[in-house]
Amino acid sequence: MDRRQLLTAALAVPAAPLFAKRSKIDRTRLATITDESGATPAENIEFAKKFGLKHLELRNVPGARKHYADLTEAELKAAAKEFADNGIKISFFNSGQCKFALPGTDYVRQRPETPEQKAKRQARDQNEFDKRMDTLNRSIRASQILGCDKVRIFAFLRTAEPKKTMQRVYDVLGPMVKAAEQEGVKLLLENEVACNVATCSELAAAMKAIPSKAFAINWDPLNGHHLKEEAFPHGLALLPKKKLLNVQVKGKSILKEFAADYLDWPGIYTALEKQGYEGNIGLECHIFGPDLIRRSHQCMQEMIRIADQRQS
Questions:
Q1: Using alpha carbons only, what angle is made at residue 273 by residues 269 and 274, rounded to the nearest 5 degrees?
Q2: Lesser CB count within 10 Å: N end or C end of the chain?
Q3: Any alpha helices (H) in 3-72, and if so which ranges?
Q4: Domain harbouring 73, CATH code
């Protein structure tokens, strides 16, 4: 069985649900990223059961300090079986692809570095760049085994003038998108505050620059907000609707106690429904510290409360 056949089999569902409209956002559309919602994969499954979730997002294996992309095929198949046995699908594969400095560019740093530190960093970045296709292939293979057809990608660490860098970025991402398309997988570009694509306008420009059906968007509204973008409603309105395939919620953006980062998620839910959004909404808590997992529970409770309140 080749890769495309593997993914097709893993994603197989009855015909009626596949084509059914599901624009209403309820808890069956929600997910959480596993390495911030439990100390072990078993805790992630219990988290999903507690909240009635049908989906999870993957990044690092909880408690293992290893990315799912770095697991062996046998380990991936065992993980896929455990998720399936518990009625859980993987909605998004959070690869760290291209979240380093593009060789030949200087990214905006908050801390100074010595010449020796810079030389070591540049060597690491060059090594990551040189093996980017191998890294991509590992992520694609892992996502396929896990039954997921959406893999995250970034646009390299942000330079002082991103617009002057973007053509080089597109030249690198283009072949990666083609490789993903050949495997039946979509690469979802995230707007990350530390990267060259951080706002909705930059996401929209990237979609125009690489007009492939295998290139789409993972939208994190808080990231644009941190660059003083009005993420909603203005930012969302800029995104091409058919390209928006996953949305992520940062914890501080949904809890009112964090006033500076709080966003109008009830309004975002409604707007997404009106434009026919059919993807998932995943929690990436990011309220770091000893209470991270407790905070993830708190945030998911709020995400569900907003969804349920709007359905009543």
A1: 120
A2: C
A3: 3-11, 15-19, 41-51
A4: 3.20.20.150
pLDDT digit string, tens, across residues 267-302: 999 999 999 999 999 999 999 999 999 999 999 999
Structure token digits, residue 85:
């046995």
* pTM, two decimal places: 0.92
Residue whose C-alpha is closest to residue 34's, from 69, 60, 71 = 60
Instruction: Work out how many domains the chain is built from and give that number.
Output: 1
Provide the pLDDT for residue 236. Answer: 98
CB 193 within 8 A of CB 159: no
Q: What are the residues whose beta carbons fall under 8 Å from the beta carbon of 278, sequence distance 6 or more? A: 21, 22, 23
Asked if 10 and 80 count as a contact pair (C-beta separation under 8 A), the reply is yes
HSE at residue 73, side-chain half, CA atoms within 13 A, is: 5
Whole-angstrom distance, CA of residue 33 vs CA of residue 235: 24
Distance from the first to the final alpha carbon of the chain: 46
Q: Which of 256, 255, 254, 286 is nearest to 269 (CA)?
A: 254
What is the extent of the structural domain holding 163?
3-311
Q: How confident is the model at residue 14 (pLDDT cuts 50, 70, 90)?
A: very low
For 186, the 3-state DSSP assignment is strand
Rounded to whole angstroms, the Cα distance separating 78 from 95 reads 20
Burial of 78: CB neighbours in 10 Å, binned 0-12, 13-18, 19+: middle
Residues 20-51 have pLDDT tens digits of 355 899 999 999 999 999 999 999 999 999 99
Closest to 306 measured CA to CA, from 241, 262, 245, 246: 262
Question: Would you say 260 and 7 are in contact if contact means Cβ atoms under 8 Å apart?
Answer: no
